[in-house]
């Protein structure tokens, strides 16, 4: 973790992370004898109170995306104006989904975000993904297709490397398990049809939904994507395992091989 050095006239103690650093800064007095930091504190604390009140009284529709992010950062960075940080995060990653989907390393490239805050952002992202996943558990997945797409997009759209994920379903098409089988490079993931089928048999799954992401952002299936899907279908069919679809996730959308009539 990068440590921020103090000036020679500051306290010699080092904070544990950037939240402590922002909390521990000594006040510097102006020529009028007024603590500059106290003036800043009064400014952002009043702003925080107003923002909380708007959210409490009117809900999230009363706030812009950067204000929602700012409201969250209040708790992660207690003693600093977080509006510039919230706006910098959105400038860097484009959307709230992009912020929460970014890796900790990339998050820390934004000024004001250190290791501890990056960790907290990823933790919140994980909670959101688990919530979406819990909505699918035990339900007939084919009847909740929009939820499937929403979950897969949240889980994979902003990954910087390709992931190959499988949703394993029982005979009622209810979700048994969701597993990332392989992680590859920026444009390729090795997939082995026999391993896919072997895992399906281990879980007593009778149907599969294949999912992988395109880090380039374009969900258009490649020839290799189509050929690999057909190989899995041919391997699974004699064992009574159906492949319902292969979904490709991009940053701003998705493609269904079944919907495109490619399988």
Summarize the structure.
The chain is an alpha+beta fold and 263 residues long. The chain is built from ten helices and five strands; from the N terminus they run ααααααααββαβαββ.
Polypeptide structure, described:
The chain has 263 residues and is of the alpha+beta class. The chain folds into two domains: 18-128, Orthogonal Bundle (DNA polymerase, domain 1); 140-256, 3-Layer(aba) Sandwich (Cytidine Deaminase, domain 2), CATH 3.40.140.10. Helices cover 46% and strands 13% of the residues. The chain has helices spanning 18-24, 36-58, 65-76, 83-93, 96-101, 104-107, 115-136, 145-156, 193-202, 223-236; strands spanning 163-169, 175-183, 207-213, 242-249, 254-256. A five-stranded mixed beta sheet has the order 2-1-3-4-5, with helices on both faces. A hairpin with a 4-residue loop joins strand 4 (242-249) and strand 5. Helix 3 crosses helix 4. The chain starts with 17 loop residues before the first helix and ends in a 7-residue tail after the last strand. 25% of the residues are buried.
């Amino acid at each position: 973790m990068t440590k921020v050095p103090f000036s020679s006239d500051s306290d010699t103690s080092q904070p544990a992370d950037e939240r402590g650093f922002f909390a521990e800064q000594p006040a510097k007095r102006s020529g009028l004898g007024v603590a500059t930091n106290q003036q800043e504190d009064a400014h952002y604390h009043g702003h925080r109170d107003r923002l909380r009140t708007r959210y409490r009284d009117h809900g999230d529709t009363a706030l812009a995306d950067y204000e929602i992010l700012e409201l969250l950062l209040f708790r992660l960075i207690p003693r600093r104006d977080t509006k510039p940080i919230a706006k910098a995060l959105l400038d860097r990653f484009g959307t709230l989904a992009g912020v929460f989907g970014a890796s900790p390393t990339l998050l820390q490239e934004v000024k004001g975000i250190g290791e501890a805050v990056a960790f907290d952002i990823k933790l919140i992202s994980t909670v959101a993904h688990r919530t979406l996943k819990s909505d699918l558990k035990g339900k007939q997945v084919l009847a909740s297709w929009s939820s499937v797409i929403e979950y897969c997009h949240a889980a994979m759209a902003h990954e910087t490397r390709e992931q190959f994920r499988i949703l394993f379903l029982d005979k009622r098409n209810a979700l048994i398990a969701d597993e990332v089988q392989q992680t590859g490079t920026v444009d390729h993931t090795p997939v082995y049809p026999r391993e896919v089928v072997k895992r399906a048999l281990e879980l007593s799954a009778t149907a599969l939904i294949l999912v992988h992401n395109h880090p380039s952002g374009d969900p258009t299936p490649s020839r290799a994507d189509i050929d690999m899907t057909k190989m899995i279908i041919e391997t699974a069919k004699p064992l009574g395992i159906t492949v319902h679809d292969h979904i490709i996730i991009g940053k701003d959308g998705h493609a269904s091989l079944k919907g495109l009539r490619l399988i």
